[in-house]
Write a structure and sequence with these properties.
Strand order of the largest sheet: 1-2
Number of strands: 4
Largest sheet: 2 strands, antiparallel
Strand content: 15-25%
Distance between the termini: 65 Å
Bound molecules: zinc ion
Order of helices and strands: EEEEHH
């Protein structure tokens, strides 16, 4: 049995309903079964989070999480592009 580094499962059963687990929640790493997981994500990546995390709104991954991190960079590059365009057209 192989597990990701730093992750030691203490139970092979779903923490929510005690059915055999399908895998860890992408957010809290609790083992969950297919019935207790919610597939979330976007075009980049689809991951499974437990219904507990999903209900707390913690299952934000993919495009939305990516956009939250990268929008300042996009704004910065946008400003740079505007300055470059302004200099080039003078
Ligand atoms: Zn379950
Ligand atoms: Zn979770």
């Amino acid at each position: 049995m192989t597990t990701p580094a730093g992750f030691e499962p203490d139970d092979i059963y779903c923490v929510l309903c005690h059915a055999p687990a399908a895998g860890p929640c992408a957010t809290c790493r609790a083992l969950i079964c297919a019935d207790c997981s919610v597939l979330t994500g976007g075009a980049v990546k689809t991951v499974a989070v437990c219904t507990r995390c999903h209900g707390q709104g913690r299952g934000v991954v993919g495009w939305r999480a990516w956009a939250q991190v990268s929008w300042p960079w996009l704004v910065g590059f946008g400003v740079l592009a505007l300055v470059a365009w302004w200099l080039a057209t003078r």
